[in-house]
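Intended use. Records such as the UspA domain protein entry shown here are meant for training and evaluating sequence-to-structure methods. They are not intended to support clinical decisions.
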Amino acid sequence: MAAPIVVGFDGSDNSRRAVDWAAEEARLRHRPLLIVHSLLVFASVAAEIDGSRIEEMRAESTVLVDDEIARVRELAPGLDVRGETLEGMTPSVDLLKASLEAASLVVGSRGRGTFASLLLGSTSSQVAAHSHCPVIVVRGDRVGGDAKPGHVVVGVDGSPLSQSVLRFGFEEASMRGTRLVAVHAWLPPAPADFGDLLPTVYDVDALAADEERLLAESLAGWQAKFPDVPVERVCVRADARRVLKDESAGARLLVVGSRGGGGFTGLLLGSITQAMVHHAHAAVAIVHPGH
């Protein structure tokens, strides 16, 4: 069986929007859809809950997932969709386990957590950082059935991971019949450490030409593989977080790598990626190394 598109579902409006997105992704990629619901009944809690209540919770979860499957089948007839209720330690543990066998994983930006003022839910944050497959965080009220699909924005930084990011972005743009906007933002060199000195003079025009060349070289092979995708290049001297956020306005999807070429390599998510999953105007796809 083909690897499924997996989506986390907890009954919230955000998770239902994530299911809509995942159903469209599954249809476009000709893959089955797996709706995963987490029932938090594990040893330390189960000992304090009456056995009949546990069975009641399981029955409620079954009804919740079955109703969602029925809704998806009505919206997307012919789509291979099934549901699964897992009883792990946390929803993020269940979803990360499911990501081992998934083509991609879709989550809402927020679920039914307690702190509604947080920009991103704890489950979404954990999944975005640790997933074994690409993750799509569905932000705002953009869902799968929007009449105007919007374009695909891809962040390009020249790192080895950029090639996987571009592949995912070109696939999405090709499937959706839309254009791709490749964004490369750069800044002049900065001191590597306190006290380091930089040349007092450097050629900004030469730096700009180098960055334009980097973007063109990064795109060359993918434009040949996806001749049906119109490509717009944005190469600017600016902070990447601001540029990507601005470019995501009106977009269908923003695609970024889990880490870029600089900063602290031990971190699971780069600062630019973290900023996008919190503040982008569109759904955000995070591509991890190896995918």
